[in-house]
User: Fold this.
Amino acid sequence: MNGPVEPFKIKMIEHVKIPSEKRRKEAIREAGFNTFLLYSDDVFIDLLTDSGTTAMSDNQWAGMMLGDEAYAGSKNFYNLEKAIQDVLGYKYVVPTHQGRGAEHLMYGHLTNPGQIVPRNMYFTTSKAHVELAGGTMLDVIIDDAHDPENENPFKGDVDFKKLQNLIDEYGPDKIAFVNVEMNVNMAGGQPVSMKNLRELREFCNDYNFKIIFDATRSSENAYFIREQEKGYENTPIIDILREMMSYSDGCIYSSKKDCMVNIGGFLATHSKDIFDYTRGMVVLFEGLHTYGGMAGRDMEAVARGLREGAEYEYLKYRINQVRYLGDLFVKVNIPIVKPIGGHAVFVNALKFLHHLSRDQWPAQTLSAAIYEDSAVRTMERGAVSKGRDKDTGENIFPPLELVRFTIPRRVYTNTHMEYIAESIARLYEKRDTIHGLKMVFEPKHLRFFQARFEKL
Ligand code: F0G
Assistant:
C-alpha cells in the first residue's frame, strides 16, 4: 500500500481540470506572480491553505439542516459551547466569524500600547492584531525551529531562556501575556510538547503572566503528543487536549482548520474576567454573543467538526497523508522542513532556488513557478509574509524562506499527492532556469495577500 488508507468514502465529487500551459502562463502573470490573486478556476490542485477548505462529513451536513437562525439564543450556539467544554475543557466561549475575529477581541483586550507579547513563533494575523493594539510580538521559539534539517519532534517548544531574556530586558510589567501556538504554522506545522506547556505554566505562575493559546491546530498537535511523547501512547486525544488547555488561561481558535468547516472561529477561556470583557466587545465587531458572525447552521457544523476532528483514526490518516507527500518529496531530493509537519509540507526555497538572492523573493518565485508548471497552487511563507520591521521599515528576512504545500482535510486522494510530487520533481530538474521576482506593489497590512511582482 502506498498512502494511508482513508477512514471515509466519497459521497459527492467536484470536477477539477488542468488549464493549458498557455493559460497557466497568462494566469500567473495576470495575478502578479502572487498565488493569492489567481482565480481558483485556474487551479487544478489547491494547496494554498488548509483553512476553510475541508470536505465536511454527512454528519456535519445533516447538522447544517438543523440550523436555528434565531438572532439570540440559537440552540446551535449551546451545542457549540458544549462541544468546546467537552473537547477542550474551557468553561466560557465567545463565538467569532473566524480566527482573526477572536484575535482582535482577545489580543486587543490583553495588550496595552508599548507592551510585548512573547510567542513561540508569530503568525501573520496574530502579529498584526497585537500591533494594531500598540504592542509588539516577539518570537521565543527554540533555535531548532529555525533549522529546516533539525529533526527535533517538538520544534514548536518555547525557549525559556529567550523568554527570560525578554522579561529581563523589558521588565515583567511590559509583558502583556504569553502566547503559544499549537503546531506552529510558520515553523512548518511543528508541535509543542506537553512537557513544555506544563513547564511554561509553572514559569508564568511565578510572574502572574496569563497564557493564551492559539489553539487553531491543537487536535493535530495532540496527535503528535500521543505519537511522540512518552506516557501518552494510549491516551485518548480528548484527554490530551484537555490537559493541554488546562495550562492556559484561554485560547483563540480558527475553526476553519481542525474543526473541518468552511467558516467559523471562537475564543474560549477559564477566566470570567476575559469572558466578561470579550463577550461585551463581540457585539461591536462580530455579532451577538450567541452567534458572533456565524449562521446557526455554521455553528452546528463547527460543534460536530470539533468532535470528529479529535478522533484518533481520522487524525492518524490526516497526519500520515501529509507525511506521504513529504516522503515522496524526500525520495526525489526536494529539500523540505523536517520533521514533516501536521498540516503541510514546507519546501526550503533557499535550497531549491539557491541561485536567487533574498531580495529576489525565492519562496514567492518558487510558488509562482510551481503553479506555472503544474497548476498546483501553494503559498509563500518567508520574507514576503514576514513583512517589514515596524520601527525601521526595513524588510525582515527570516531564517525560514518556505513554500507551503498545505493539505486540505479529506479533500484530495493519495493519487493527487503523487501528481504533485511528480510535478515538483520535474521542476527541480530544471530549477536553474527559474528567474527571480521584484515586488512592484506592496500593501501596508499583511502584504503577502495582495502584493504584485514582475519577473526579473
Ligand atoms: N492562527 C493561526 C495559527 C492560523 O494559521 C490562522 C489562519 C489564524 C490564526 C487566523 O485564522 O484565517 O480563521 O482568521 N491561517 C490560515 C492559513 C489563513 O492559511 O494558514 P482565520
